């Protein structure tokens, strides 16, 4: 049952797919390889070889002329600003994933109960269409800051000043607004402000997939529970949530991958300044600002290492899906 | 008698009114949350759109929400100046030049491979396909340094063909995965009868498989198109010449040099959003399918 459910979730995510292995047609032994050749040429040059080469480069010096052992990795894990970037990335993948899944679930459940479901879902999904760059401009403007006494042009500071608070430079500010309290990295205000942009963009994705999952749950089960006197919360907690668990796992996988590679949003909003660097922005700086390909390579390898468990889970899920067909 | 009937009728209406009022009140939090969320999700984009039509002095000195008071001041100047002076017209064209081949080539190449994976028998087919699934989630960052060096050696840095090749490769694993699954689900009898009629693999692929797979191809094409259209990182690393910059790169440069000239930034950002928004509204079903399918791409 759970395997079956998992496979339907997977296939829902990947469109209406039915897989049947059949290979009656094997005209000539060469033919399949000819059809595969262009794809494998591309994949070998642009994915397989670079992964291996990046591994090698990560153990070499800045311009890859000599091996330096694990020095680059030592540096990455001990240098304070690198550590901040690593912590920021961990915050990204946890908070971003949690909020997008949580809000997506909330909106999916609620929108299923109103007549304007299609419109409300479309509005929340729209940000998925635009680029991170455009989203970054949109939100830089929302967070715009003018000193006290000037007209505010950013909506957040307008609201803040209207209710009698001081305007805040949201993208620079690392303390809790209106206090002197500095939380440890990565919990700076500006990090939360940037992660909110990611959540604004990706909640629609979680909502749409969860909403499709909700529609797949039989109404009879829920009605029966209701007749037995279960509260709405109990129905959600005991029936809907367990049945959607595989869907949530798939969504979380996708969001963790996105959170891990976050680059564009941070790059356009702050360029990683004011303590907002993540692994990908730091890697870019190592490559182009400091010309140190060894350290940049080490950062890339760390991203890859973090992806490998997800890769293995995906393969296992895929294999179960194949076997149940 | 008639009095009694009348009063029971009024009571009935009154009771019905009460139940619907109670229902409305109990459902009020639901509506507040949903409508509130929809407003919150729309407002930032709406503010951008409004600001892009306001004169520079107004955008910099008053909030966009004051634009709807008299005197109304709206203008198209921002658009004409970003398009001409800041090179957004050229960038729009560059985005098209980059995106169209970078959408068509990977789908074609993936189609060939997917055909083999779905309908031909060869040793190691399963293992190779699983390898493709694994490549799906590899982060682009891992490939940047070696590919940049390779491009430097063969003089592909800052060229359109270079970025077409890179986007083709990055798009392949997902495209192969999706197309193989779709091709594999096509009715076997159809292909068999085509082969019996003496059709070649080429003919079966172009005349039968591709036409039958239009829905999958549409979703995939929309995903790949938007992925490339919205990409910043690949363009930033491989396409270092400003004359070939797509819109994302130009906007990024505008942000770093004119970070507070909001009338320019908002107009530029909106220009880059027009095409994705049109695709969203015109092809919503394929759009949602494509985007959700591609969400795991590394």
Can you offer a commentary on this structure?
The complex is a heterodimer of chains A (325) and B (298). With 325 residues, chain A is mostly helical. Chain A contains 13 helices and no strands. The radius of gyration of chain A is 24 Å and the shape is flat. The relative contact order of chain A is 0.15. Residues 1-26 of chain A have low confidence and may be disordered. With 298 residues, chain B is mainly alpha-helical. In chain B, 78% of the residues lie in helices and 0% in strands. Chain B has 14 helices and no strands. Chain B has helices at 2-52, 56-61, 77-84, 88-119, 125-135, 141-153, 160-184, 188-196, 201-212, 214-230, 233-238, 247-257, 262-282, 284-294. The longest helix of chain B is centred in the first third of the chain and has 51 residues, at 2-52. Chain B is flat, with a radius of gyration of 27 Å. The termini of chain B are far apart. The chains are: A mainly alpha (325), B mainly alpha (298). The interface between A and B is large, with 110 and 115 residues.
């Amino acid at each position: 049952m759970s395997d079956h459910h998992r496979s339907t979730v997977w296939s829902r995510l990947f469109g209406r797919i039915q897989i049947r292995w059949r290979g009656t047609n094997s005209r000539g032994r060469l033919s399949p390889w000819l059809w595969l050749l262009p794809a494998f040429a591309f994949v070998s040059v642009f994915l397989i070889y670079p992964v291996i080469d990046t591994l090698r480069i990560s153990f070499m010096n800045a311009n890859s002329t000599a091996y330096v052992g694990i020095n680059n990795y030592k540096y990455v894990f001990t240098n304070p600003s690198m550590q901040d970037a690593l912590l920021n990335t961990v915050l990204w993948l946890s908070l971003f994933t949690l909020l997008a899944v949580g809000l997506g679930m909330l909106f999916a459940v609620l929108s299923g109960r109103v007549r304007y479901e299609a419109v409300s879902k479309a509005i929340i999904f729209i940000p998925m269409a635009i680029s991170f760059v455009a989203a970054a401009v949109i939100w830089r403007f929302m967070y715009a800051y003018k000193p006290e006494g000037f007209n505010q042009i950013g909506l957040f500071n307008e609201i803040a000043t209207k209710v009698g608070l001081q305007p805040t430079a949201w993208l620079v500010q690392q303390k809790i607004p209106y206090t002197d309290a500095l939380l440890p990295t990565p919990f700076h205000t500006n990090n939360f402000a940037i992660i909110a942009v990611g959540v604004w963009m990706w909640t629609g994705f979680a909502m749409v997939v969860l909403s499709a999952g909700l529609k797949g749950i039989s109404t009879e089960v829920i009605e029966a529970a209701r007749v037995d006197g279960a509260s709405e919360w109990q129905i959600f907690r005991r029936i809907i949530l367990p049945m959607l668990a595989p869907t949530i796992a798939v969504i979380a996988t996708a969001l963790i991958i996105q959170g891990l590679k976050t680059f564009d949003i941070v790059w356009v909003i702050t360029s990683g300044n004011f303590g907002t660097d993540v692994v990908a922005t730091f890697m870019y700086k190592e490559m182009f600002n400091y010309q140190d390909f060894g350290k940049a390579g080490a950062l890339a390898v760390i991203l890859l290492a973090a992806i490998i468990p997800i890769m293995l889970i995906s393969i296992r899920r895929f294999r179960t899906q194949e076997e149940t067909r | 008698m008639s009095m009694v009937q009348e009063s029971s009728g009024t009571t009935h209406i009154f009771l019905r009114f009460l139940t619907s009022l109670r229902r409305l009140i109990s459902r009020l939090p639901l509506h507040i949350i949903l409508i509130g969320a929809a407003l919150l999700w729309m407002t930032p984009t709406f503010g951008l759109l409004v600001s892009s039509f306001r004169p520079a002095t107004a955008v910099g000195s008053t909030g966009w929400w004051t634009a709807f008071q008299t005197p109304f001041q709206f203008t198209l100047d921002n658009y004409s100046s970003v398009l001409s002076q800041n090179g957004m017209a050229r960038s729009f064209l560059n985005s098209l030049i980059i995106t169209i081949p970078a959408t068509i080539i990977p789908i074609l190449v993936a189609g060939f491979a997917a055909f083999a994976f779905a309908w031909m028998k060869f040793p190691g087919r399963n293992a190779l396909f699983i390898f493709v699934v694994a490549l799906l989630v590899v982060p682009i960052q891992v490939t940047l340094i070696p590919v940049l060096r390779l491009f430097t050696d063969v003089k592909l840095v800052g060229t359109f063909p270079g970025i077409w090749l890179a986007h083709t490769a990055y798009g392949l694993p997902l495209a192969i995965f999706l197309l193989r699954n779709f091709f594999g689900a096509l009715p076997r009898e159809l292909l068999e009868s085509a082969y019996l009629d003496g059709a070649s693999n080429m003919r079966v692929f172009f005349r039968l498989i591709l036409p039958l797979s239009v829905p999958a191809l549409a979703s995939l094409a929309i995903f790949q198109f938007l992925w490339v259209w919205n990409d910043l990182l690949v363009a930033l690393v491989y396409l270092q010449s400003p004359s070939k910059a797509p819109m994302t790169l130009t906007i990024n440069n505008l942000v770093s040099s004119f970070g507070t000239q909001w009338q320019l930034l908002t107009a530029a950002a909106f220009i880059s959003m027009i095409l994705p928004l049109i695709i969203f509204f015109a092809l919503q079903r394929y759009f949602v399918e494509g985007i959700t399918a591609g969400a795991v791409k590394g």
